[in-house]
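Annex B. Sample input.
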Amino acid sequence: MKAQETVGYQVKTAWQSIAKMYNRLTVENGFSQAIGYVLINVKKGGIPVTKIAPQMGIEPTSLSRLLNTMEDKELIYREKDTVDRRVVNLFLTEKGLELQKISKKIVIDYNNYIFSHLDENEKETFFKVIEKINALTNDISMAASLVEK
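Annex B, continued. Sample output.
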């Protein structure tokens, strides 16, 4: 089997292409893709810091550095939760809200561009297939059977 015929190769090369495009567009607007991703995930009422790392799939130490950078750039601020003082919530500053709008526009414009080149059947098939690949990849019994063979 050629590398190009594997699911991993196709998903990885597609993601690298998307990430490169997102990086180029965010850098043109003065921030990084990682910052843009955090900005998109912070809702109006804030979000607990502990929920950001799993959403982004990064380690807490990397997230900590990223959030410190974002604070230094005055894009976010942190506050202890009024109900549970152990929880620290993340909020966007005015500057962060402006960059959030840009981040969302980049994502929406990309999706609109891709979807304008796919018919309804292709879109539906894409989502069915990618969701199935994700579910199968996360299926522990499937992973265990791969190791046994």
